[in-house]
Amino acid sequence: MVKFCPKxxxxxxxxxxxxxxxxxxxxEEVVGESGSNVRIVRRNKKKEIVVxxxxxxxxxxxxxxxxxPRCGFNEAYYWEIQTRSADEPATRFFKCVKCGYSWREYx
Length: 107
Fold this sequence. Notes:
Elements: E1 3-4, E2 11-16, E3 19-22, E4 28-30, E5 37-42, E6 48-53, H1 55-58, E7 63-64, E8 76-81, E9 91-96, E10 102-105
Antiparallel strand pairs: 1-2, 2-3, 3-4, 5-6, 7-8, 8-9, 9-10
């Protein structure tokens, strides 16, 4: 999921490790603040895997009336990301409010 700067609204990019930096104003933040949970999973002594759980931020997304293909509930959170070339429409992603199922929609 894309993270936006809380100060200027610019896009924040991963600076390495668990730090993200705004490309517009330079604001830096450790991933895990602002509602994200960071969990470190150790597979062996040489590697560690950081798992970022974004679930608390989902509740901040706008909602729309659309039917969930899994449970039939008629309300879902939504967001858009430009996944294809700039001359094509953005891809809309949905997450059911009731069951949590996620799906995408192309135009």
